[in-house]
Amino acid sequence: MKIKGFLREPLIPSEITPQNIRYDFNDGCRILTPEGKEQYTVTLHDLDSGNLLETHEMTGGQQWQSRHRFYVRYGMEIRIGERLVFRHEMDLQGKETLLRFDSDALGDTIAWFSYAARFQRKHGCKLGCVMTPAVADLFKTTYPDIAFFTKEEAKNLAPYATYRLGVRYDGDGTRARFEHQLVPLDALAGYDLGMDDEIRQEPPIPSYGDGKDGYVKEPHICLAFRASMAQKEWQRESGWEEVVEYIQSRGYRAICIDKDKKHGLHGAEDFTGDRPLQERLQTLMNAKMLVGLPSGLAWMAWMMRTPIVMISGFTEPWAEMPCRRVQNRLACHGCWNDASCHFKCGLPDWCPREKDHECTKTITPKMVIAAINQELGDRR
User: Fold this and answer.
1) What residue spans of 80-172 are helical by DSSP H?
2) Are 229 and 363 part of one and the same domain?
3) Which residues contact 130 (CB under 8 A, 6 or more apart)?
4) Distance separating alpha carbons of residues 30 and 10, to the nearest angstrom
5) Marked catalytic residue, from 27, 48, 102, 108
6) Into how many domains does the chain fold?
7) pTM, whole model, 2 decimals?
8) What's the domain range around 194?
9) Does the pLDDT value for residue 65 go beyond 60?
10) CB within 8 A of 369, min separation 6: which ones?
């Protein structure tokens, strides 16, 4: 595949052979041949299976990038004519390696970061993570062997290898090993990083900041009304009001910890706003549970080992973390994990199956309250 220019930093491959051929493994295997009349043949193998992956012909002054961009343990051979001039087996041991988190979403980043430390331990690499600073602050103290960079800082880096973590919609198998709809959210990163033998849910350890005893002392239940898409939100009219009123009737403070209160507070206490994420961690720390949606705050609660009551219609039970899920399986549900449903990212209120969000509209307050009671340990 001939390309006009590499689309990701560094623009020039970071490694160089004695023949002045440049190469690296940043977003796939990348090769840049020196100017000249030589004819090159590049061969890539998968070292773990022994399979031939690609053979590519190049001339002097050309750039080339392999088809697969996720983790593959490449074996590379370069020939000039029939003569083998360079052989290399990819090895991350001691090498500068980047994980780029292509999503700034809180939940995506927490879910995918759960594989970062395991990846570093497996390969012994000098690992750096490129993510939004607010989320990086959750991990800097507890993972001192991992460097954290902003997108702007990453432009000055020239690592040996880079892997991009994200939800892919192209479906051509170049950037992701599995369709995002067919595996749990966190496992997307595990598979793309070649961690097939370690696909398990293992919450990362956050840095709590100040106030390790918890921000709220009184018995309380946290609530998350908002999510990044309407498909994730509870569309039942007056549903949240009834649930908040019930929580308060049980003697618990009902605290909304969303970033904003765009849809109102429904009678809950207002802990919204652009607060540090550590403050939300501390509020979740001693909470009896989080009652919320398939959103970033649910992944934060998972990281805190706080029980979760999740109101969800658009995902299947295996798509997120273990939790007490409230779902009406007699209604339309699970579109996010249906590969025949193609989400239109620019239409956040769109119902993929054109059923007006019946998946959550048919979840009643009675169902949610029953799940809360189960989590509280009674059957009333």
Assistant:
1) 106-113, 116-123, 133-136, 151-154
2) yes
3) 98, 99, 100, 101, 148, 149, 150, 151, 153, 154
4) 11
5) 108
6) 3
7) 0.92
8) 96-198
9) yes
10) 242, 243, 246
Cβ atoms < 10 Å from Cβ of 12: 13
DSSP 33: P
Tokens of 92: 């991350």
Q: Give Cα separations from 256 to 56, 61, 224, 284 (angstroms).
A: 56, 58, 6, 11
Indicate the angle between helix axes 239-249 and 365-376, nearest 10 degrees.
30
Number of H helices, E strands in the chain: 10, 18
How far apart are the C-alpha atoms of 378 and 325, rounded to whole Å?
17
Residue 187 DSSP label: H
Same domain as 190, residue 163: yes
Single out the residue in 33, 54, 89 at which a domain terminates: 89
Q: Active-site residue 260, yes or no?
A: no
Judgement on whether residues 104 and 80 belong to the same structural domain of the protein: no
Produce one character per residue of 200-220: b if its CB has 16 or more CB atoms within 10 Å, e if not.
eeebbebebbeeeeebbeeeb
Strand partners, 147: 128
Residues 317-374 have pLDDT tens digits of 999 999 999 999 999 999 999 988 877 666 667 888 889 999 999 999 999 999 999 9
274 & 345 share domain: yes
C-alpha distances out from residue 360 to 126, 177, 330, Å: 45, 31, 11
